[in-house]
Write a structure and sequence with these properties.
Strand order of the largest sheet of chain A: 10-9-11-8-7-12-13
Structural class of chain A: alpha/beta
Helix content of chain A: 40-55%
Strand content of chain A: 15-25%
Oligomer: homodimer
Distance between the termini of chain A: 64 Å
């Protein structure tokens, strides 16, 4: 990765550059926090239109990125993440339009109550302030993250992967066009104008109080670095070691449908299942058909002894398999002795992300939903529903696995804080 | 402060001791998270009763603390914070009873909605996990913090000020009695059994993933150390540089009542006013009576030129006065040119804690409440209402001034996280 600064803005000193970005973000955050809902909506609609209007420039920048990428890095998966085409650019604009159309979260009264002394207390949503989003070479994150932050009244500093540098710049330009069309400060969406990795370190330092929260969006290495180094709050995004537990009272056809979807719909998303737990009480009828179905669908199975006994093609699972996020057509399969053993397995090996139980027994479902300590727990539904869009949030900036502030899909509401408004008529405290 | 270990538990190695406490807290957290509401309530009621039953032992321990405190540290204020008497012990037990009687926050569905595909999504409150509370030599915090954490289903590690070491131990014993009477794990409320300050450093390191959040409760030095060193999330508790703004449309009598209460009711609490802003449009009628009233009440006034012109006894304010939390009978007073100047002053010098406007003009009130970015904003009421009890939260563990997760009074609800329960009947994602 090149350490040289690539932008006209860069002064040759990353720390100075970044501090200045932080100052400008903080200064613009107040204007954005107080911006009228209509203005934010109009700015985002204009940004979506600017993405469409500048589609050819964006595609040209993307071609530059792909040409510049080191040939050895261009695996199929990497090229797929990095590449844009006309359809993807259109989808990106559409996604900004969807965020534009969401209800404005700022100022919403989420609860209110009266006190015996006549004080009326309201809890209302407010922006968080300045958000730093650090992501990899997926150009569309530039548009999604920028739009979500603006909608929720926050200023944002975006730091995309260096391989998508030119693409992100072109998309960023469209977002800024949108802001400027409504007289909102351009500094409310800034893109780090250098590929120098020291910029990430500066962001994680908090830029002297200019960053309120850091959102890492990407793989394990990125998230690990952010969590280890950050001196400011982070919305933790651990990997998703997600489970489907087929309970003794599970309908086989439903179990097959859910397991197949949870694993194979898309194997590279964080909500894809990585481990199948089958109750011993139902293994004799359910295990073999589930394994055969998965293998027929092209999935490699790594199983415990009972699973290997059900099908000779099953590879022996090692202890490490139970804690592995494959993000691939591989599934670990284990037979467990009842629901408590399933819950204990998930507690020991899971990542508190997304876990599902398949059962016709409501009491078992209730126990699973109560006792599994994950951001998302499902009954009779695929783990692949772990997605802000599927939750009705319009879009998400990621799936949080921490327990503080944001948990599960992080949409516009999770990008807000709150304050208390207390309305009196002269009350003093005794 | 002594660096030697004082407990029978201590093994001579603070790091080892603390790691072990962390492991035990984490192990007990799950049991507490799943404990039935009735059990938690009964345990806290039993703890309150144990405090009453052991009042003489607690008072004896407190006498030991006071006798041991270095004579030069025993200022009146310090002795007042540290000292217990029969009435204070009774109030402490009463406070635990109040927390016991609060509605259980765990499992409460805070919102639910249906998706077009038939999925029903519920957002429910869950405990946070393990909380570390670091506080100074106020023995009652041991009881309050312990009770609040248990009620919200969390395990807690308490680290009180070393001068209250024996008092805290005696109170802690009563809390553990309560837990044990209901078969809840004693490890759910642990008290650091050593005065060694290295224990604080260990807590701030997160004890290898055993601490989910740190709550500092105390003065500037303590909070500063916690925020600087913590490698885990902190509920930030900045000092309270709180303002009362007397707007041009303020009724003088109401303004006098509110200003007097906001400053003088108790000067040592974080919600006490430190700066009075008077609108220039009303200074000719309101400034002099306000200043005269405050001086008559024993308050020192540090004012700008206009304020000094109103009363000769006013001391000249320096730039630093506008950012100072006196926690004493001192008030800085400034005349400002209209509501925007008042808001700008608060933005520049305040600590986003608690600020109040006195006005008969609803539009001005609305502007102030919307634009002042503080945890608590009030209209025609005293800043001294910044208190969990006054908000109806039953009790509080502190007032948070950060914007993430908790803001304002931190009661049992703010000590919870949430998760999503998704109820389906076989849904898979297209």
């Amino acid at each position: 990765m090149s350490a040289k600064l690539e932008s006209v803005d860069a002064k040759g000193d990353v720390a100075v550059l970044m501090k200045d970005m932080g100052r400008r973000a903080r200064a613009s955050a107040r204007a954005l926090a107080l911006a009228a809902p209509d203005k934010k909506t109009a700015a985002l609609k204009a940004a979506a239109q600017a993405i469409r209007d500048n589609a050819s420039a964006i595609l040209q920048a993307n071609a530059e990125d792909i040409a510049a990428a080191a040939a050895d890095k261009l695996t199929d998966a990497f090229r797929d993440r990095l590449s844009l085409d006309a359809k993807r650019v259109a989808a990106m604009a559409e996604s900004v339009d969807i965020v534009a159309a969401l209800p404005d979260p700022v100022g919403v009264v989420t609860s209110s109550w009266d006190r015996p002394n006549g004080l009326k207390i309201e809890r209302v949503r407010t922006p968080l302030g300045v958000i730093a989003v650090i992501y990899e070479s997926r150009p569309n994150v530039t548009a999604d993250a920028g739009a979500l932050c603006v909608k929720s009244g926050n200023a944002v500093i975006l730091r995309g992967g260096s391989e998508s540098f030119h693409s992100s710049r072109a998309i960023h330009r469209a977002l800024v066009n949108g802001l400027e069309s409504q007289g909102l400060p351009a500094d409310a969406i800034q893109l780090v104008p250098t590929r120098d990795r020291a910029a990430v370190g500066e962001l994680l330092s908090g830029l002297g109080g200019s960053i309120d929260v850091v959102v890492p969006r990407g793989g394990k290495a990125l998230v690990g670095r952010v969590e280890a180094e950050a001196r400011v709050p982070v919305f933790a995004h651990l990997e998703g070691v997600c489970h489907v537990y087929v309970h003794s009272a599970a309908d086989l056809e439903m179990a097959k449908k859910i397991v197949l979807n949870a694993k194979m719909r898309r194997t590279g998303v964080c909500g894809s299942a990585e481990t199948l737990l089958v109750d011993r009480a139902t293994a004799s009828t359910h295990l073999k058909p589930l394994v055969e179905m998965l293998i027929a669908a092209g999935c490699e199975i790594r199983g415990d002894e009972a699973t290997r006994a059900a099908d000779k093609r099953v590879i022996a699972a090692t202890e490490q398999d139970w804690s592995t996020e494959y993000l691939d057509a591989i599934l670990s399969v284990k037979v467990v002795d009842g629901i408590q053993a399933a819950i204990d397995h998930i507690e020991r090996h899971g990542t508190h992300h997304t876990d599902s139980i398949v059962t016709g027994d409501r009491e078992a479902a209730e126990k699973f939903l109560s006792e599994v300590d994950s951001a998302i727990v499902l009954h009779n539904a695929s783990t692949q529903f772990a997605d802000g869009g599927e939750f009705g949030f319009g879009a998400e900036i990621g799936i949080a696995t921490g327990r503080l502030h944001a948990r599960g899909p992080v949409g516009v509401e999770q990008l807000t804080s709150f304050k208390y408004r207390v309305l009196g008529n002269g009350q003093t405290r005794p």
